[in-house]
Design a protein that fits this description.
6-stranded antiparallel β-sheet; globular; alpha+beta; 311 residues; 8 helices; 5-stranded antiparallel β-sheet
Length: 311
């Protein structure tokens, strides 16, 4: 996971998972990305045992470092936030070696590498708004001319960072494209702007392809086009609509096939915009509002996999 001392415990989904695992009697170890290595084909893990607390001022206690073979662990959760950069990919490949030795790694690392959180959604084009992925300023300008009001975002971002809205007048589109595409060297995603964002960008969580009953609608502050909580949006827990459930019905079997056990999809209005597979969040907000135990359900599912009951 990312540095445990830097999380926001009241909101952190990884901490919720650790609390759920601890409640079920599991011994938990804390691993940073730089703590993974491989020696003569043997993946090694330098870790510290950790005790967690549901306390916003004192949420963890760490033991001493130990180094073990990855195969000494039954289960490893990889919850590093994007971007999926060189360091992330290296760690992911090392965790794939652990998978080959029989360790259950969640989510499955090959699938995480294959499923870019922006690009994965375009595998379901009829569920998405009109979308273009390109590094060509000419193509993106043509897309804007067709749709008049578009969102341009990087393919490796999170939390609403570096997301631009270009309205009909096209103001600043030139400098935005120069910056975002590195003068035509880097592909970005352009999507038709969805005015339904005013009612919220809904995060829907799925465990083994099955949706949780409620999602978190992240509502932008006035004058903002991003609903992300990290960008100042507010959250409102809502039951899933029939259309939300239909999107989940379409996407769920692919998630299950790829062993993407814990996923967060983003829905604006009736459109799928992203499929988040690295470290989806919003568990604690939904649990507080509904009395659910999403992290507990996830851990129970993984324990079932270890016992041969999961798929």
């Amino acid at each position: 996971m990312d540095p445990i001392e830097g999380i926001k415990p009241a909101k952190d989904t990884t901490l919720a998972m650790m609390l759920a695992a601890q409640k079920r009697g599991l011994q938990i170890h804390y691993i940073r990305q730089q703590d993974l290595s491989v020696d003569s084909g043997r993946p090694l893990v330098r870790s510290r045992p950790v005790t967690v607390h549901d306390d916003n001022k004192h949420w963890f206690d760490l033991g001493e470092f130990t180094t073990n073979e990855a195969s000494d662990f039954d289960l490893i959760l990889n919850r590093i936030d994007p971007p999926v950069d060189a360091g992330y990919l290296t760690a992911s490949h090392l965790l794939s070696l652990a998978e080959q030795q029989g360790v259950l790694v969640s989510n499955r690392q090959q699938s995480v590498r294959d499923c870019n959180e922006k690009l994965f959604a375009v595998e379901f084009p009829d569920l998405c708004p009109p979308t273009l992925v390109s590094s060509s300023a000419e193509q993106i300008r043509a897309f804007h001319a067709e749709h008049h009001d578009v969102i341009i975002k990087p393919l490796d971002g999170m939390g609403g960072r570096s997301i631009f809205r270009v309205r009909k007048d096209g103001e600043n589109i030139g400098v935005i494209l120069e910056l975002m595409t590195s003068h035509g060297q880097t592909a970005v995603m352009a999507q038709r702007y969805l005015p339904e964002i005013i009612d919220g960008d809904k995060r829907i969580l799925l465990i083994n392809g099955e949706p949780v009953s409620h999602g978190l609608a992240r509502i932008p502050v006035k004058g903002e086009h991003r609903g992300n909580l990290a960008a100042g949006g507010s959250g409102e827990v809502r039951p899933l609509t029939p259309h939300d459930l239909e999107i989940c019905r379409r996407v769920g079997p692919t998630l299950k096939e790829k062993q993407l056990h814990f996923v967060g999809i983003d829905v604006i209005g009736k459109s799928l915009t992203e499929i988040n597979v690295t470290s989806p969040t919003c568990v604690r907000e939904i649990d507080r509002a509904t009395g659910s135990d999403i992290a507990g359900d996830y851990i129970e599912y993984l324990l079932g996999c270890l016992q041969g009951a999961g798929s």
